[in-house]
Amino acid sequence: MGPFAVLVFIPAICAVFLICLLSPQEVHRQTFCFQMSWQTLCHLGLHYTEYYLQELPSMRFCLALSSLMLLTQRVTSLSLDICEGKLAAASGGTRSRSSLSEHLCKALPYFSYLLFFPALLGGPLCSFQRFQARVQGPSNLCPRHPFRALTWRGLQILGLECLKVVMRAVVRAGAGLTDCRQLQCIYVMWSTAGLFKLTYYSHWILDDSLLCAAGFGSEFGQSPGEDGYIPDADIWTLETTHRISLFARKWNQSTARWLRRLVFQHSRVWPLLQTFAFSAWWHGLHPGQVFGFLCWAVMVEADYLIHTFAKLFIRSWPMKLLYRTLTWAHTQLIIAYIMLAVEVRSLSSLWLLCNSYNSVFPMVYCILLLLLAKRKHTFN
Description:
Layout: H1 6-21, H2 24-52, H3 59-83, H4 100-115, H5 117-121, H6 128-136, H7 146-173, H8 184-214, H9 235-240, H10 244-250, H11 253-262, H12 271-283, H13 287-313, H14 317-343, H15 347-354, H16 360-379
């Protein structure tokens, strides 16, 4: 990261300082506000470079920003654990009279957790309890077949990378959103989103392999009272589900669980909308991200109502099979639409996407949401 590593070290040091200084009741709110404020300032710097200066940002800066987003997950997860009583507080609050050396000894485990290298590069969110159990556990504790597990992951990555080469050739050979006409835009959207998904799948499995090689993978089991290990990539479910709500829970699973715990479970009004809005904030508040995540929230809400009413009225198995097939295709196309909206960086590209035939698919769910919401009110 070069000099941009400072962007990661400063919040890590400040987070540990706040954790050791504040009481359990105050630690989460203070660390959350500081961490998100720091991350937002860094994202504003990225916006200034991309949108105002019209320049490509430094790759080192982008790498530091990515690590900073992952650091935010660990900081807030740790502060929530302390606030909820899952972890003993590092300090007794302002009345603590421990010596400086004792404070440093208490702070070192937090530093090592926030800055351990697999989590800086990526990978599923690892809780502090799991990290501590692995580090303090016996050195001879290892899976029976680590080579087999890593070999299988390596073969998966190789297969995904080969598919990426094929899909990239397909995307380059076809027209783009600027050149496509009518129904051709649907094929362009589907193929481009497929390339994005293959990239995500490959990176997630690679991150999971790194955690496994470092001793934090699912092969090492689970200690009593420890949060279970959840890999980010559940490719089979993501590609076969006919429900947008299930896709949202399985896409980047550890991040989805973190968002649910951090935002959804603490929101009293519109928890779903607040969760997706915070996700857009955490990702950087690019125009496409704001539009895409808010659209995703509406689609999930519509998904709940559509499938609830479908269970009431669709009884025969041929109709169920037809319904599942149609909703699967519709789900995949809506997800492709959202993915393109989130990934595009320019307002012109987002406008082209919204003005294409692809907008028909989310509009269908929006119309059904309005109709079924009114009918649900009548039923109630």
